[in-house]
Structures are given as structure tokens and as C-alpha cells.
């Protein structure tokens, strides 16, 4: 999630392209590693940035889900589940802990949870969506990825 050491011009370009991506998106999944505190600490700022950009335009609540990844790495954990849950609660976001390396079920849960936060009217506007459509698409993507990697 970090941007490394960029020169001012690159920073400005990166900033504007991030803002463009935020304007384009309808909903957001922010992933941190439970083994990397910096990736967790940056979330409040990112979420405030997203909310300011999206909720400034209209009064709708922006659907955001926070995901703690690498749940399987117990011994390297530096961010507790409680901290993740509390942050999500305080910022009115969904929260999941998953292990992307272990199983795709967790990722499905994330997208299911995200879809539940999107107002029905928005989902109805897009062809082939709705909670079932999204979960079906995600299942197909993850199932294909698993088969490919065998
Ligand atoms: N044990 C474990 N490893 C994972 C998990 N998710 C990703 N990884 C590993 O973490 C490394 C980085 O994953 P990437 O997919 O490159 O993700 P990234 O956003 O570039 O992550 P970072 O390099 O950690 O900043 C890879 O070696 C992955 O295999 C997980 O849930 N558990």
C-alpha cells in the first residue's frame, strides 16, 4: 500500500490517479496484512480520503469492507482481530479476516459482505449483478484461478 519515495511530480500524478480510481469505483475492499502493522495503520487515512471524495458528491454511504489477510500466519500476527474489528466499527465498514493463500471461501465472504452494503437500487441498475450474480462471478474467477494453478 505504500508509495515508496517518489518525487513531487510523481506524487502529484499518483495522487490524481488514485483519486480518479476512487471516483470510478462504487465500493471498496481495503486489504491489510495482519503481519504488517504499517499496512493496518494507513487504513484510517485511506478511508477518510475515500469518504471525503465519495460522500462529498452525494449523501449515500460508501460501501467499504476492511480485510485482514494472512490469517494463517498466527506466529507473525502483529494486528489483533479485535483491533481490526474496532477500526471497522468506528469507521462504519465491514470487517473480515481471511487467508487468501489457504482458501478462496474467505474472499467469497468478503465480496458477499460488500454486496450487502451496496444499495439494491444500485445493484439493480447493473446487468447481471445482485448478490447472487456477484457471488457467482467471484466463484467462477476464484475457481478458475485455482484450476489454473494446479
Ligand atoms: N501465508 C500467506 N501468504 C500470503 C497470503 N496472501 C498472500 N500471501 C503471500 O504474500 C506475498 C505477497 O503477496 P502479493 O499477492 O504479492 O501481495 P502484495 O499486495 O504485493 O503484498 P505484500 O508484498 O505483502 O505487500 C506472496 O508471497 C503471497 O503468496 C496469505 O493469506 N497467507
Bound molecules: guanosine-5'-triphosphate
Beta-strand residue percentage: 5-15%
CATH topology: Rossmann fold
**Broad shape:** globular
Report the top-level CATH class.
Alpha Beta
Q: Flag low-confidence runs.
A: 1-6
Rounded mean pLDDT is 81
> What is the CA–CA distance across the termini?
29 Å
Fraction of residues in helix: 40-55%
| The CATH homologous superfamily | P-loop containing nucleotide triphosphate hydrolases
Strand order of the largest sheet: 1-2-3
Q: What is the chain-wise order of helices and strands?
A: HEHHEHEHHH
Main β-sheet: number of strands, strand sense, barrel status? 3 strands, parallel
Number of domains: 1
Q: Number of helical runs?
A: 7
Question: Tally of extended strands?
Answer: 3
Please explain how this structure is put together.
It holds the Pfam family Ras. This is small monomeric GTPase. Its EC number is 3.6.5.2. Keywords: GTP-binding, Hydrolase, Nucleotide-binding. By secondary structure, this protein is mainly α. The protein has one domain: P-loop containing nucleotide triphosphate hydrolases (Rossmann fold, 3-Layer(aba) Sandwich), CATH 3.40.50.300. It has helices at 8-24, 37-41, 43-55, 81-90, 105-117, 120-125, 131-148, and strands spanning 28-33, 64-69, 94-97. It has a 3-stranded parallel beta sheet with strand order 1-2-3, with helices on both faces. Helix 5 runs antiparallel to helix 7 (131-148). The chain is globular and about 45 Å long. Mean pLDDT is 81; it is low at 1-6. The protein binds guanosine-5'-triphosphate. Guanosine-5'-triphosphate (GTP) is lined by residues 33, 69-70, 72-73, 99-101.
